[in-house]
Model the fold of this input.
Amino acid sequence: MRIEVIFGSQRDNGTHSKIQNRFEQIETSHDINYIEMSEMKIGACTACEGCTHTGKCVLPGGEHDQFNTVFNRLIEADGIFRYYPNLCTIPITTYSTYGKAIKHIIFSHMKLES
Done:
């Protein structure tokens, strides 16, 4: 089983580091991978609907925007564990990822009239 763990904190070496250390101490046959949002460059969705035609986010930023990489990892995972601090609702990079993912799922199933 492949599990993706999303750490939404924008701080390096915060509480999420302690949680990651605990995960790494668990003996398991599962493949556990970590996504640290503090290291990701993900812009906000503009609802351009470009993903409807291409199947991936087409926003400018291209190779610098890592949304498609993160999204593909989440789609391929058997399980997702997410952690973000309680300081605010959701840190901006994590919020942008969730927003794009939801819109990508909605728009990729729509058929636009030409």
Observations:
- The chain has one domain: 2-108.
- The CA atoms of residues 27 and 106 lie 38 Å apart.
- The chain has a mean pLDDT of 77.
- The first helix runs from residue 15 to 25.
